[in-house]
Amino acid sequence: MIVVATADFEVYHEVVADLRERGATFTTIEPDDPLPSKTAVVLTGAEHAESFGDTDAPTIVVDPDDSRQAVDQALATIRGEHGRTVVGVDPGRQPGIAVLAGETVVAAFQVPLGDAVDVVLEEVRGDDAVDPVVRIGDGSRLEGAKLINELEDVRVEMVDETGTTPYLGTGARGMGDVLAAVNIARLEGEAIDTREIEPTPGELQVIKDRSRERSETNRAIDETLARRVASGELTVEEALAVHRNDVDGSDGGDGRDGGNGGNGGDGGDAN
Fold this sequence. Notes:
Helix content: 40-55%
Number of strands: 10
Strand order of the largest sheet: 7-6-5-8-9-10
Order of helices and strands: EHEEEHEEEHEHEHEHHHH
Largest sheet: 6 strands, mixed
Shape: elongated
Region (Disordered): 241-271
Radius of gyration: 27 Å
């Protein structure tokens, strides 16, 4: 059983909320109370950590600003899950991300592509991460390559994601990418450091179409910018900004070099 023993309201509130969200069985006591006989792990604040130093149950000190990490450790302890930390990623514009400790899913996310690397690094660099590995599906080639190339100093494996997306029944809409990430995490892949992708004409057209959808003036970026987006050098928004500056600059040049000077010359002839 997980025991929460703290007089710190902030620690108590954050930990209890996280445990309830996970559906975990726990009890709460005052720091001076004796531990229940079935105590498996104690969650407490820094000010009470020494109070439980002589107990058989492991004590986890909770940082109120990051209670989830402490809860993850507690759940891993009572489940006996001290296996490898594996982060599975189903790549795409909104990647699904699943974090496993051994065979247990301890966290799941779905975030914009631009935020995915930060989320993954936070999980694999945590104090409780054990021999971490990141497994990325081989679909969505451009997005997957961007993630692989930006995940430095981390073991990354590329996984054949065929068949990893499950059938979604009623009420499960939106869960497919996360569930696929769980399945990807459970498949061994080939270690990879970088992935260079030559975008196909179809992939470049998709990027151009996406830029037109996001453009306030219904303009699409050109192929050169689309290739920079495909390589991960620019986001679509950044490419649109470059394109807008290029177009505005050329328009201004045309105005200065064009008919104004010629009209002035015509006026002189008339005089």
